[in-house]
Design brief:
Layout lengths: L39 H6 L3 H16 L3 E6 L6 E7 L2 E9 L2 E9 H6 L7 H8 L2 E3 L2 E7 L4 H13 L2
Antiparallel strand pairs: 1-2, 2-3, 3-4, 4-6, 5-6
Helix pairs in contact: 2-5
Amino acid sequence: MAKAEKKSDKPDRKPEKPPAEKLRPAPKVAFPKKAHPPTDAEFAARLPSPVGKRFEAVRAFLTKQGATEDFYFYGPRTGWAYRYLQEEQSLCSILLQAGRLVGIVALDAAAQKRVPWDELSDIGRRARRVAHGTPALLWLDVALDGTGAADFRRILKSKLAR
């Protein structure tokens, strides 16, 4: 008597695996080491000329508002950034993120109501759409290239108009 062949529940071929997704390299953090804060010159050296001019205009605006400027380390994923304070309250931060200059500002509900959202450029409106936080405290990341620097100043004016 011949032995009965066992039929396996397994298919004859292995199912094809979907192709592995390419992992994008993590964006390079401009100044990732806490022990090595950048100098003003090192920060400025990483900026293209037109962006550097917009950055200086934003810095001048913040200085006129009485803000103090210092470097602050936000962690290894963000690195060092300029932090602007008015008295003890944080106004905003400006950092290099994936090679772009970005301004970050937190707006409470009252400041959000004062921002002329309809008058901002596409950069400012996009920053609002992708903002994170809660209705009580909204965090905006505004790219400072193109018309973003002007939008960032308008948003800061709304925050300062208490």
